[in-house]
Write a structure and sequence with these properties.
The complex is a heterodimer of chains A (about 220) and B (about 210). Chain A has helices at about 45-50, 75-85, 100-110, 115-130, 145-155, 175-190; strands at about 1-10, 20-30, 35-40, 60-65, 70, 85-90, 165, 195-200, 210-215, 220-224. Chain A is an alpha/beta fold and about 220 residues long. Chain A has one domain (about 1-224): P-loop containing nucleotide triphosphate hydrolases (Rossmann fold). In chain A, the strands form two sheets. A six-stranded mixed beta sheet of chain A has the order 6-7-8-3-9-10, sandwiched between helices. Chain A has a four-stranded antiparallel beta sheet with strand order 2-1-4-5, with helices on one face. In chain A, helix 3 (about 100-110) packs across helix 4 (about 115-130) and helix 4 packs across helix 5. The N and C termini of chain B lie far apart (about 50 Å). Classes of the chains: A alpha/beta (about 220), B mainly alpha (about 210). Chains A and B meet through strand 1 and strand 4 of A and helix 2 of B.
């Protein structure tokens, strides 16, 4: 599913303040696998997640998803790839505060030119999975942290991506909502999604729903 | 006197600026082409891809402007007809010296090549694996060489326009049958019409079979 070989990322390449965020990463993630990338802040896990999401490009190395070399995709094609294959749950949720829950969730589908009827159906389905249907017409700015995250989960699922990437998904949540998110992982698994979670939250240690924990330190994988 | 005309100053300034930008793109294009290997995932190839994106932007911008510069050139030489004795419009000014006709031909050729480059680039960015990358960079190198020659011809042409000697113009082109100067490139009205309708049919056929 996700195949990474000899991947490196250097920020500010060829400058005096060049910084190597990832060093010779080799990783293979199988379809429907749930993987936790564990590491302290600045270890490179978010950089790795952003590269898998085609949000940034590596400095060298290969990233193959479903047999397609995606690290070298031109920007427009990378956007299409992202919209077709990736659901991203951000640490700060990255929702549009002034839009309603329903409209936020519909956004990834609107850009595809899908009919309004299909959009409505898919949005309802995603809201049901994320348990946020009861807040569908509310503005996002009036939601609690946990509700915002459920909205973000629905948005990540609505276009039925094969891969869900989560960057510090519990960093802005209390313990109760963090546990609810962990419960959601089971649903992702039941839906056959490949899930990659970058976190340093000890709540993810030893979870039954997590297949593998990969430790990243100073941009290198030290245990997988 | 010719070089002090406002239109000529603007034309030469814009052309010099575009030539400078294209020169930068040319140097980079040669460097990129010599080391390009899309299959490689090396740091060098990633750097080349980033650089190529910027170079293509420069080429796109300069070639777009170059297309606009041709009608401005026509306007400029048309304006010069007021200071070139005997000239009533641009047709007279362009044949004021031996550099004019080849310069005009070169400009038209560059416009056609530029159009081809723009089509090639549009097709290239539609695909995800840069299928026309090398072809469009080679084409740009050819265009740049022609643009460099054109710039030299531009200066030679504008510097050598006589302001003392009268030039032949529309009065002779459209003179009484058989007595006037022939149309440029040895064409007569009949051949010109055939060419016009042939190109028109080609354009229609190209859009039909697209």
């Amino acid at each position: 599913m996700i195949h990474i070989e000899h991947l490196n990322k250097v920020y500010n390449e060829n400058a005096a303040n060049a910084y190597t965020a990832l060093h010779d990463i080799n990783l293979h993630i199988r379809p429907a696998e749930t993987v936790v990338l564990k590491g302290v802040s600045g270890s490179g896990k978010s950089t790795l997640l952003s590269i898998i999401a085609t949000l940034i490009k590596p400095s060298s190395g290969e990233l193959v998803v479903d047999g397609e070399q995606i690290a070298k995709l031109p920007d427009t094609h990378a956007s299409h790839f992202r919209n077709a294959h990736i659901g991203f749950i951000f640490q700060a949720f990255n929702l549009f505060d002034e839009l309603s829950v329903k409209d936020n969730i519909a956004l990834p589908l609107i850009v595809t030119g899908m009919s309004q009827k299909s959009i409505d159906e898919k949005v309802q389905q995603a809201m049901k999975i994320a348990h946020i249907s009861h807040k569908q017409d509310q503005s996002v700015q009036n939601l609690s942290g946990g509700e915002k995250q459920r909205c973000a989960i629905a948005r990540a699922l609505v276009h039925e991506p094969k891969i869900i990437l989560c960057d510090e998904p519990t960093a802005n949540l209390d313990r109760e909502n963090s546990l609810k998110f962990i419960e959601t992982l089971k649903q992702f698994k039941a839906l056959g999604k490949t899930v990659v979670i970058a976190t340093h939250d000890p709540l993810f240690d030893g979870l039954e729903s997590v297949d593998r924990t990969i430790v990243i330190e100073n941009g290198k994988i030290t245990s997988s | 006197m010719i070089l002090l005309s406002n239109e000529v100053i603007i034309f030469l300034f814009v052309e010099a600026l575009l030539l400078l930008l294209q020169g930068i793109a040319f140097v980079n294009a040669v460097g990129i082409l010599s080391r390009w290997d899309f299959a490689a995932s090396t740091a060098l190839q990633y750097r080349l891809e980033k650089r190529a994106y910027l170079v293509v932007l420069i080429i796109l911008f300069t070639l777009g402007f170059k297309m606009l510069l041709l009608p401005y050139f026509s306007y400029t030489i048309d304006q010069l007809s007021s200071i070139v004795p005997g000239a009533m419009c641009g047709a007279g000014v362009i044949s004021a010296n031996e550099y004019g006709p080849p310069l005009l031909s070169l400009k038209v050729l560059i416009v056609f090549l530029t159009g081809s480059w723009l089509i090639l680039n549009a097709e290239d960015i539609k695909a995800s694996s840069y299928p026309y990358f090398k072809a469009k960079f080679w084409l740009f190198i050819i265009i740049f060489i022609l643009v460099a020659v054109e710039s030299v011809l531009d200066v030679l042409y504008l510097v050598n326009i006589p302001t003392g000697d009268p030039v032949s113009c529309c009065s002779t082109i459209y003179g009484a049958a058989g007595s006037g100067e022939p149309l440029p490139f040895g064409l007569d009205i009949f051949r010109l019409l055939i060419l016009f309708y042939l190109i028109y049919a080609l354009i229609l056929a190209a859009s039909f079979f697209r």
